[in-house]
Amino acid sequence: MFIKKDLRKIPKILEDAVDCRTNDGDDDADDIMMANDENGANNKHNNSEAPDAKRTKVLEPLKELRLSRRFQEFQGTVQILCQPEFAPKLTQLKSLNLYDCQISNLEGLGDMFGTASPNLETLNLGRNPLSTIPDDFAKMKSLKNIWMDDCQLNGPLPKALMKLPQLESLRLPHNNITEIVLLEDTVDTFDSEVSSQPNLKLLCLDRNSITDLPTKMKDWVPNLEELLVRHNRLERLGTNVLPSTLRILHISSNQLTSLDDILHWKHPESNDAPLSHCPRLTHIYANSNQLTHIPEGFVTCHSQLQRLVLSHNPPLRQLPQEIWDVLEQNDEGASTACEIL
């Protein structure tokens, strides 16, 4: 669908927006409606055969602000948006798109929108040269969806992103994030700057430089459903790291040698079938790694598994019998619960 770009400058867009302060917006709307009624009455009086004059459209509060690719106006910062006089126009804002604006400094964004826009849910900052996220970013407590793809974030995952309690999806592909730090340096407790994010369902960290997943990950994102960490530097997943709610796991193009960390054994010394830390998994994409084996019972203990992708693992020379059984059924055209590639 083609969306016509608003050619007005940013200050003009905000100046023209409805003032959302108490009663002001309603008064403006009433004035417009009254004026339209008077105009309509006059038109009817002057020309009884003329059709009713069209009523002027009442302006709606600003709920979506699309400002992508306006680098000439932003000049590297967000200060143009952070003028106090614009605050009354932003009260009902739910979505803000600042994609590809060459913004390198977000100072002031959280202070402004954390107060002025208590309903802001979606923020797109993709393709901006952002190396850091300022602390005031965490003041935007209402955020549910964040895009920061193809920026220049480096080092640990910014702490400000880990303080947003309503966050549902966090997309940070194509950066240089190296780790997710959850714990204090010397103790096995959460860092004071990190909060549990129980609403986070999707975490995308594709094409970063992550070598390990944090040991307390399931406490940080206890209800995570989809994890994407393709094209990183993972050598292992970590024992009992992933939350049990996980449904979709993208771990392709890493350096993983085993999927054993997804499993656990009730009696490690026995020959009992393994159990899964993530029994709800429906899709596992583990292609293009260095897997050497697949644990016996891996498919069986994931009863909801619909797709398992294992291609392009050069060291993988043998497969468990249960996988051969599924492959044989698929070759024969039988309907199986799991597709293995």
UniProtKB/TrEMBL annotation:
It holds the Pfam family LRR_8. Keywords: Leucine-rich repeat, Repeat. GO terms for cellular component: cytoplasm. It comes from the Eukaryota. Coiled coil: none annotated. Residues 28-54 are annotated as: Disordered. SMART domains: LRR_BAC, LRR_TYP. Residues 39-49 have a biased composition (Polar residues). Transmembrane segments: none annotated. The keyword ATP-binding does not apply. This is Phosphoprotein phosphatase.
